[in-house]
Specification:
Elements (H helix, E strand, L loop, with lengths): L5 H12 L4 H5 L7 H10 L1 H28 L5 H20 L31
Helix pairs in contact: 1-4, 3-4, 4-5
Length: 128
């Protein structure tokens, strides 16, 4: 069993901020199990606050990824890009809206659709 330490808290929060899931983090044998982390969160207000800040940073990171995906997408990859964007929007909304201390269930949150249009250079009108 991995003992609670400020170093483990720092490592977990850093990985969360970088977009790694708790499940993925806890698969590493050097890290505590997800059950242990949940216990730590319920028993340690300081860790809970750090974890919340890390998750908010992860949500911001996802928003940056959405913009990057949209900016780098070409017409051939539009469906894949939309899937990647929608998945990140769902996770970001989940982090922001459904991780209240009193919230015990997962609830899907409707989000606006991003419409991406490609305009061929020859079809653009110029104001000369």
């Amino acid at each position: 069993m991995v003992k609670f330490s400020s170093e483990k808290v720092r490592q977990i929060c850093q990985k969360i901020m970088n977009g790694e899931s708790l499940v993925s983090i806890c698969q590493n044998p050097q890290m505590p199990s997800s059950e242990i982390v949940i216990q730590w969160l319920s028993n340690n207000i300081g860790f809970r606050r750090q974890f919340q800040i890390a998750r908010e940073a992860a949500s911001d990171h996802l928003a940056s990824q959405i913009v990057h995906i949209a900016d780098q997408t070409n017409i051939e990859d539009l469906k894949l890009a939309q899937l990647r964007i929608d998945a990140r929007k769902w996770v970001a909304n989940y982090i922001r809206n459904n991780h209240d201390d009193n919230e015990n269930s997962i609830e899907a949150v409707a989000s606006p659709t991003i419409k991406i249009e490609f305009v061929e250079e020859e079809n653009r009108k110029t104001d000369s």
